[in-house]
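Apologies for my clumsy wording, but are you able to produce some protein sequence, whichever is easiest, and the tokens describing how it folds?
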Amino acid sequence: MKITLIQIGKTEEKYLLEGIDKFEKRLKHYINFSSITIPALKNTKNMSVTEQKKKEGELLLKLIHNSDHLILLDEQGKEFGSSAFSAYLNNHMNKAVQHLVFVIGGPYGFDSRVYDRANEKISLSKMTFSHQMVRLFFTEQLYRSFTILKGEPYHHE
């Protein structure tokens, strides 16, 4: 199985970049993992929120293949604890899903066409975090999930 994380807009804070890089490097020991950054839209002052979501959605959907299992990181999605999330990933591996694609949307969420294409939605929390922080939290949780599956001593319950 391969896992890809797609995000809109680059991460700028150095401390977040260092953390994301740390967990992405660790993940490569467990799974074929990659991340793709779609550049933030330019000249959005004259665009409505709907127009912004539509343009972001077009860019995003160009990267998705029919066979991809698309999971949106969305505040309305299903929540998991760390152990349950690792079981969720394991379930997808057991089903022989070839490619899980997780997406962190732009500041206003996703266009309706992206929601229509998505296979699932998950939420990291009921709290709101910056999109840049979500990238770190998500890569850490992916790493944590694989250490749980391997019985390694990273996660404590």
In short: The helical segments are 14-27, 49-61, 82-94, 112-117, 131-149. Residues 82 and 141 are 7 Å apart (CA to CA). Residues 2-37+51-149 form a domain with the Alpha/beta knot fold (CATH 3.40.1280.10). The radius of gyration is 15 Å.
